[in-house]
Design a protein that fits this description.
- The chain is of the alpha/beta class.
- It folds into three domains: about 90 residues, no CATH class; about 240 residues, TIM Barrel; about 70 residues, no CATH class.
- The strands form two sheets. It has a nine-stranded mixed beta sheet with strand order 1-2-3-4-5-6-7-8-9. The protein has a three-stranded antiparallel beta sheet with strand order 10-11-12, with helices on one face.
- The chain is globular and about 65 Å long.
- The chain starts with a helix and ends with a helix.
- About 40% of the residues are buried.
């Protein structure tokens, strides 16, 4: 035994090559380290003469954001045909979200093939690709307002609350689950007002302080990127001063769509850093949660911005939304996860796309998520591997994608239970266009669709009972 241990610990002679069990990796294949760099924005006609200092100015980005199809035409000009702009104009007429796209994000879209570009699909709707909404869709499918004791504060989980501090974002996503409130009114959605007023915030603070079980607050919106530095300080300190609060998350899509704010808005970063450091001294965790969906959203500018956050000692986690034609392939999702890790961002969740008005073309099947999770797990460290979840319609909260009580791949109906959140069953639906023609026809009938849902819930109950019996036998 002693000789064997010595043998294991011995080094090979210096002149003896080490035996590699795996073939050598070509550095050129490590795509997650290859980030877009240089003045890539100058490919856009309107930005050909924009220098780096100007492009990295977050105020210039905000001022020059695209807010209507006419501004898009002025920026991209003759790179795409006139028919495309007509398609966009009609797309926004039918969309629940108003348009707001930063010059940075616009520069990352491949305008040579805009219909298939994964970033265009997320932010710029085209009428020709839209699909009818699912028959079971509602505007606030997650019932955030129903679980709001005061305006803009959702208390669903026992020890966590979602604080919607404002209703604006640096960029508006087509697929926003809060299209009932975020942004300005559109042609078909009148928004719920959640303005950044301290009177409204005071009501939320009072509620939070009176609920001793609350320990975890997500500061979101809208987008916490839009909060002024003094507001970050105010909100952070008010929450840190409450004895019951142990964890605070500032949620933002900003680093994905306007990373230069972290580079040039020193006052905002300093304010966030001060809250994080004060929290650490109080033994309370304050972190940043961001939202990247595609590896093309991560550039050398992103890495530079996130390096600043990392140097400040701020933990950053990411939450992605699974989207058709965006990140629903194995190669894309694996590259996204690896690229996030390269930037010291922990992939946290991948959400199966919520039932959102006007974006049925972006939703995938639940089976897609199940297959992707198998493919992603194992390509990197476990703490850099996201959990794929369904945010259960009706307020059931986040359920691990494979934890369904029943999933009928034919009808596209999956049934979840959330015993620690709410009683009953919560039903999610695959996009109708992914189902067989026969089932699609059944979804056109309210009576037939109701029967399919009832059958799925009945089977979920039977599955639960069978599992309970098996557990009692063991």
């Amino acid at each position: 035994m002693e000789t064997h241990l010595k043998t294991i610990g011995q080094r090979p002679p210096a002149d003896q090559p080490i035996k590699h069990l795996k073939p050598h990796v070509d550095p050129a294949t490590l795509l997650h380290r290859q980030l877009l760099d240089g003045p890539f924005w100058q490919r856009i006609p309107a930005y050909r003469n924009v220098d780096e200092a100007t492009f990295l100015d977050h105020t210039w980005q905000a001022k020059n954001s695209i807010t209507n199809p006419q501004k898009l035409l002025a920026a991209v000009q003759d790179v795409v045909p006139p028919a495309f702009y007509e398609d966009v104009a009609e797309g926004f007429h039918r969309a629940p979200m108003s348009i707001r796209v930063s010059p940075y994000l616009l520069s990352l879209i491949e305008w040579g093939d805009p219909y298939n570009d994964p970033l265009r699909r997320q932010f710029v709707p085209v009428a020709s690709r839209l699909l009818p909404d699912h028959p079971k869709l509602t505007l606030d499918s997650l019932h955030e307002q129903a679980d709001a004791p005061v305006p803009g504060l959702t208390h669903r989980y026992p020890d966590k609350a979602l604080f919607l501090t404002l209703d604006t974002c640096p960029v508006y996503c087509r697929f926003c689950t809060r299209s009932y409130a975020v942004g300005v009114d559109t042609d078909n959605v009148e928004k719920v007002s959640l303005k950044a007023t301290e009177d409204r915030w005071d009501s939320a603070f009072q509620y939070i302080s009176e609920r001793v079980e609350l320990e975890d607050i997500v500061v979101s919106g809208g987008d916490s990127y839009q909060l002024k530095a003094r507001q970050i300080t105010l909100i952070g300190n008010r929450l840190l001063e409450m004895p019951n609060i142990r964890r605070i998350r500032f949620a933002t899509k900003g680093p994905a769509v306007m990373p230069m704010k972290l580079i040039t808005d020193t006052e905002w970063v300093d304010a966030l850093t001060a809250v994080v450091e004060r929290g650490r001294k109080l033994h309370k965790e304050v972190v940043l949660h961001t939202h990247f969906n595609h590896p093309n959203e991560i550039t050398a500018i992103t890495k530079r911005a996130l390096d600043i956050v990392f140097e400040r000692g701020i933990i950053t986690r990411n939450q992605s939304v699974l989207q058709r034609g965006v990140n629903d392939s194995v190669a894309t999702m694996q590259l996204l996860v690896k690229r996030l890790g390269h930037c010291q961002v922990h992939p946290y969740y991948v959400y199966v796309h919520d039932l959102v008005k006007g974006v049925e073309d972006l939703r995938t099947t639940l089976q897609t998520a199940l297959d992707l999770e198998k493919a992603v797990r194992g390509v990197t460290a476990g703490f850099h591997t996201p959990t794929f979840v369904v945010d259960a319609p009706g307020g059931g909260g986040k359920r691990v994608a494979h934890s369904f009580e029943h999933y009928d791949r034919d009808t596209g109906i999956s049934v979840f239970a959330a015993p620690s959140v709410k009683p009953g069953f919560f039903v999610y639906f695959d996009p109708v266009d992914t189902l067989s023609p026969e089932i699609q026809q059944r979804w056109k009938s309210t009576a037939e669709s109701d029967r399919m849902v009832e059958a799925a819930i009945t089977q979920a109950k039977l599955n639960q009972a069978a599992t309970a019996r098996a557990s009692s036998i063991r």
